[in-house]
């Protein structure tokens, strides 16, 4: 035993090994944080944009689809997937960046295939008039995997907004649809006249007239020929539902033949 006044070294024999391990751990954490900060910084600016990645299978996570974007992995949650779409390992996929956040295991990049804005970004890739500002997409209503309605307007005189999105021989809209599988796309003219906008939104059906019931409550009735009623309503009400979502109006659909002489705010 040490005597009074003598120095005593109680450093554990493995202190050097423990210190080295701790130092390695701290350095590793610092490197990891720096890498996470780099990834977060790079992808935080991608929020709301379109990116392309490669589908990666993950046997431990069957609910989500993992997308490799360079050296980074993004997550396509089930809620952001399109009903009926199959995501195959190695497949290149365009996705919309919904959110970039700091998670417990590093940056979390959440992407979507079902978001309405995905369709906007796909059109922006194909339509120069959207990027120049000559044409604007004013509203989008989407039921992913089935149908999307888009309302457009021209900001430059002499430009046909629907024609710009459709493209020569339909080339532009076809290029977009190739990224959306069987999903159909209706492109309609936007108008600040509610009756005209409601009539256009019901495309491919043709309204003979639209009666605005209440601008305050945004309610209107569209009159449709009997032979186009089912087209206006759509399968399981889809066309009427999307028209209402696109315009923000509650739209009643009634037979034009049954309302001969009914007052109409818009005649098409």
Task: Write up this protein.
It is a single chain. The protein is built from eight helices and twelve strands. Helix 2 crosses helix 5 (171-177). The strands form three sheets. A five-stranded antiparallel β-sheet has the order 3-2-1-4-5. It is elongated. The longest helix is centred in the N-terminal third of the chain and has 30 residues, at 15-44. It folds into three domains: 29-112, OB fold (Dihydrolipoamide Acetyltransferase, E2P) (Beta Barrel), CATH 2.40.50; 115-190, K homology (KH) domain (GMP Synthetase, Chain A, domain 3), CATH 3.30.300; 194-268, GMP Synthetase, Chain A, domain 3 (2-Layer Sandwich), CATH 3.30.300.20. Mean pLDDT is 87; it is low at 262-268. A hairpin with a 4-residue loop joins strand 9 (207-214) and strand 10. It has 268 residues and is α+β, with helices and mostly antiparallel strands.
Q: What is this structure's SSE topology?
A:
Elements: H1 15-44, E1 50-56, E2 65-69, E3 72-76, E4 92-103, E5 106-112, H2 116-126, H3 128-132, E6 135-143, E7 147-154, H4 161-166, H5 171-177, E8 184-189, H6 194-201, E9 207-214, E10 219-224, H7 229-233, H8 238-247, E11 250-255, E12 266-267
Parallel strand pairs: 7-8, 10-11
Antiparallel strand pairs: 1-2, 1-4, 2-3, 4-5, 6-7, 9-10, 9-12
How many discrete domains? Answer: 3
User: What's the name of the CATH homologous superfamily of the largest domain?
Assistant: Nucleic acid-binding proteins
Strand order of the largest sheet: 3-2-1-4-5
Order of helices and strands: HEEEEEHHEEHHEHEEHHEE
- CATH C-level name of the largest domain: Mainly Beta
Mean of pLDDT:
87
Structural class: alpha+beta
Helix content: 25-40%
If classified by CATH, what would the architecture of the largest domain be? Beta Barrel
Number of strands: 12
Spatial gap, N to C terminus? 107 Å
Number of helical segments with 4 or more residues: 8
- CA-atom Rg in angstroms: 28 Å
Main beta-sheet strand count, sense and barrel state: 5 strands, antiparallel
Instruction: Please report which band the strand proportion falls in: under 5%, 5-15%, 15-25%, 25-35%, 35-45% or over 45%.
Output: 25-35%
User: What low-confidence regions span 5 or more consecutive residues with pLDDT below 50?
Assistant: 262-268
Annotated CATH topology of the largest domain: OB fold (Dihydrolipoamide Acetyltransferase, E2P)
Shape: elongated
